Amino acid sequence: MKVYILTLFVCYIDFIVCSTNFNESEPTVLNSFNETGVDNSTEDESQTCVNITCSTSGLNDSDYHSSTLVAPETTIASIESDKSEITTKSVKNEKENELSNGLSNSTITTTEATTTTTAAPVTELPSSSYYPDQVCSCDMKVDECDINCCCDSDCSALDKKVFSHCLSDKDNFPEDPNHCFKTNFIYRNNTPITIFKHHAKGLFCIAKDNLPERYQYTDLSPIHTTKQFHKLLKRRRKKVFSWPSNFKSINKSDAFPLNSNYKFGSKIWMSDNSSNLRPFSLQTSTRSLLCDSETDMLFLHDWKSGCLRNIPSEFSDCESNFSFLDMTSFYDNIILVPNPSVLNASQLECSDDLCLKVDPMICNEEMKQCVSEIRKPKYDVDSNTCMNVVEKVLYVIYHNGTQGIILAEVNFHLINVSVSSEKLFRQTFEMNFRWIAINDTISLFKRSGKPGYLEGKPVISAQKITETVDGREEHSISLNNNPQNWLTIPTAGYNGECTGNRLNVNFRQNMHSECKLIVPCDCAAAKNKSWYAILGMYAENVTNIHKINLHVSSYGDPNVTNLNTWVPVVVETQSNPNRHKLGCQNVYSAISFRIVFSKFGTFKRPQSKIIGVFINIFESDRSIIEVKNQTDVIKIISSISFVDASKPAITRFADPPVYEIKLPTDFFYPFLSSGHRLCPPISVILVLFTLFICETLLM
Amino acid sequence: MTSSSLMFEVLMYLNSYYFGAFAVCELLMTVFKMINLPYPNRNIVLELMVIILLCCIEYARIFLGRKGNLTQKVGPIVMSLFLTVPSFLSVVYLLLWQTYVLRLEVILCYIELVMECLESVLGVVCIGSFYKYNDF
Q: In terms of Cα–Cα distance, which of A397, A391, A426, A399 is closest to A410?
C-alpha cells in the first residue's frame, strides 16, 4: 500500500514539474524583454507595463532551424499615473502568424496589459528580433539581383547560374561548435545553391537546442528622456569615446610664451611687417592635393610637405609681386623670434637687432651648391615660359639648443614653367634644424641603427678596395655617406620607365619593383645601361659582374676599419637559355636580393645584424640584336626579400647532479645481528629507550 | 494454470537494466552539459528534478509491473500502466524540451520510449489474460 501512495505522490510532483516547465518553456525571451521593461520602470517613475510574448520555440516539435524562430511582437503600454495601484489583467490572445518566408507557422500569444487607470499606449517597439533567416547582408540593391548573393530573393534560378560562389553570412552569425547540424541559416530552400548542413561527428553534440536566445541580443527600447540618456551614458562611461574639450585647447597654445625658451615641439614665432607676432607656418595640403592650408612649424621638428599649385596662366600672373611663385615671398616678411625670452614682455616688438632675418640662397635640385642671389620670376615671351618659379623651399634653422635660433636661411630651387592654364606643378616645403656648431652637414653620416639595424633604415653597403702597398695587399672599405650610393633598386616614373630616382634597400622591407628600360640596340651600350639599372652606381667601371667586391655592413653602425663587420655580397648570374644566337650577352634585366639577418643580444632589446647577402641576377628574356640606331625595351624587375635566420636562445641546461647516497652494507647490522641470542636484541632496547625518553619529555 | 506473460517479464527485466544505464547516462550528460554549455540556473534544477523523479517512477513502475505479472494480480499492473504516463512524459521532455538535447540522448530516449510502449501494450494484454483465465 505504501508503494502505491509513494508512487502517486511522485507522480503528482512529476506532473507539476512537467506542467510548470511547459508554462515557462520560453524562459529567456521573456527574460530579455522583461529586463527592458524593468529598465523602463526604474528609470521612469511613471509606471511602464511591459508585456510580451510567448513563442513556440520551447514547445514546438518542428525541425531544428524553425525552432530557432522567435517572433515576439511587443507592445509597451506606458501609463502615467501617480503611483496608484495598478492591477494587470492578462488577456490571452492567440493569433496565427504566417511568416513571410513560409518556413513555419508559429503561434504567438500576446499578453496585453490592461490597467484600471487611464491607458495610453505611448511606444510600440518595431518587430524586434530578426530571424537569422531574414538577414541577408549582401542584398543591397532593391528589386535587383545582387551578384553572388544567394539569399537575394530578386535573383532567379537563371540569374544564379552566373554566380561563382555564395557570399557567406557565416561571419555574421555565431556558430556553436557543439551543434550536430551546422546550418548556415541563410539559404532558402527554393534555390539551387541551398541549405547546407554539416553533420558533426560524435554523440555528444547538441541535436536540439531549446535555448536559441543565447544568440540574440536583448532588444532595447528607444530612449525618450534626458534622464534616461544620462543614466545610460553614465553606465557606459568607459565605452564612450570622448573628444578632448576643444574649447580650451585652441586658445591656450596660441598665446605668446613670455619669458620662456623654445623647447622641442614649441611653436616658432615670427613677426611680419605689421609687427604682429604670430606662429611661423608653411603651406600644406589637407582637403585636397592643392596647397590649401598652413601648418605651424615646431621647434626642432624636421618637417617636409608638398602640395600642388596652379601654373601661371598669364604674363601678369608670372611677374606679380609676392605671389607663391616669387622667392621673396618666402623670406621678405619673415622675421623670426630667436627665443621668446629675448623679447621685452611689455612691448612685444621684434626689432631688427633682437630678431633674425632669413637669408635667401638659390640652390640646385639636390639643394646643394647654393649661391646667395635673388631672382624674381620673369616672363619669357619667346618660349612662353615663366622663369625662376619657386619649386622647392628649404628652411634651414641653425640652433644652439636652449639659446634658440641663431641663424636662419632659406634655400630655393627655381624652375621654369611654360605658361598655361589649368595646369599644376608641385611645390615642396621643408624645414630642417641643425646644430650651429656642426658646419659640414652635407657629409653628415646617418646610422641605420646602433648597433643593430633598425627596421626601415637603409642597408649600408660599400665596395672593398684592394691596394698593394710595399708588395702587400691592403684591403679597405670605401664608404659613401650618401644613402643614395648604397644598395638601391630602380623605380618607375610616371610613364613606367626606369628613372634615376632609385629606392634604397631598406632593412626588413620586402619590395618588388618593375620598370621599363629603353636600351639602344648596341651590345656594349645595352649591357652598360642594364647593369646600371640593376646595380646603380656599383656597376660603374665593372667588367665582370662577379667582381664588384660589394660588401654590406653587418651592423647599422658601420665600422670601416674592422673588415670583419662587413659581409660580402654573393652574386650569382643566370643566363637566358633561350637567347637568340645573335643576341647580346650579359644584358641583365632582373635582380633579386635575399638578405639574411639574425637577431642578437637580449630578448628585451633584440638587435639585428645582416649575416649574408645573396644577389641573383637574371639575363634578359628578350634578346637584343645589334641594329644600328634602333632601340628596344626591356623590363627591369627587382625584388628584395629578407630572411630571418635567428635561432632561439639556448634553453638546455646541465643535467641535475646525481646523488649517490648509499648506506654501508653493514648499516643495519645491530638490528639484524643474531649473534647474541641470549640478550634481548639491541633494536628492542633502542626502541624502548626512545620511547622512554619521549615519555619523560612529554611528562 | 499460469497466465503470466513471459514476454512482459522479459521486457520488464530488460528494461530494469536498461533504465539503470539510461539514468546513469542521463545524469552524466547533464553534468557534461552543465560544464560545457551556458545554462540558466533554473533549467538545471528543473532537469535534474525531472531525471530524479523519472528514476523513482520508473523503479516503481517496473517493480509493480513485474510483481503484478508474477503474482498474476491486476492491481499492480494497472498501477504500473498508470505510472507509464508520467514516465513517458518525462522521457519525452528529455527528448524534446530540455535545454539542450544531445544526440546520444535522442537515441537513448527513443529506445526507452519504444520499450515503454511495448510494455504498456503487453501490460494490457496481460490484464486481459488474467481476466480470461482467473475469475476475480
A: A397
* Chain B residues touching A207 at Cβ < 8 A: 101-103, 105-106
Closest CA to A408 of A469, A461, A360: A360
Separation CA A687–CA A589 (nearest Å): 97
- CA dihedral over B19, B24, B25, B27, signed as positive or negative: positive
Please name the residues in contact with A221: beta carbons below 8 A apart, sequence gap of 6 or more.
A36, A39, A40, A76, A123, A125
pTM, rounded to two decimals? 0.53
DSSP code for A547: G
Is A17 in contact with B32 (Cβ distance < 8 A)? no
Determine the 3-state secondary structure of B65 from DSSP. Answer: helix
- Backbone φ and ψ for A359, nearest 5 degrees, come out as -90, 130
Contact status of B89 with chain A (Cβ, < 8 Å): yes
Per-residue H/E/C for A565-589: HEEEEEEEEECCCCCCCCECCCCEE
Q: How many CB pairs under 8 A join A and B?
A: 99
Residue-wise pLDDT for A439-493, tens only, equals 666 667 888 998 899 999 999 999 888 888 888 888 888 888 888 889 999 999 8
Q: pLDDT at position A507, please?
A: 94
pLDDT tens sequence across A589-646: 999 999 999 999 888 888 999 999 999 999 988 888 888 888 889 999 999 999 999 8
Pairing, β A607-619 against β A588-600? antiparallel
